[in-house]
Amino acid sequence: MVMNYPHVVMKQIHQSSPRPPRRLGVAEAKSRLSELLRHVTTGPMIIHNRGRDLAVVLAVEEYDRLTAEHNVARTAGAAFIDRIDALKQRYDGGVEDFAPARLVFEPVDPFARKPRKRS
Fold first, then answer.
1. SS3 state of residue 36
2. pTM of the model
């Protein structure tokens, strides 16, 4: 069953594929620095010298986004360690005095012949 809603307008969003970063040589980047800074908002600029990439110029917003993601990952690990410390405190300071029973382990040669069963 198809229902018509005349007051609802559907808008199709077209996402453009991210354009590849622009590449500039060191001399060109030096001579066009102000232009490079104006256009960095459209995407990162890679500066290269003799076929080797040297640096990436990013918009401040992009840099902040990247560093925020990095800081979240670092603080997530710190939060985990804090939870472990809280558990240790809840159980009287941790597990330093915990002594599990010794495991009796007899290794078996995986290549040894198995004895034949007699019928």
1. helix
2. 0.45
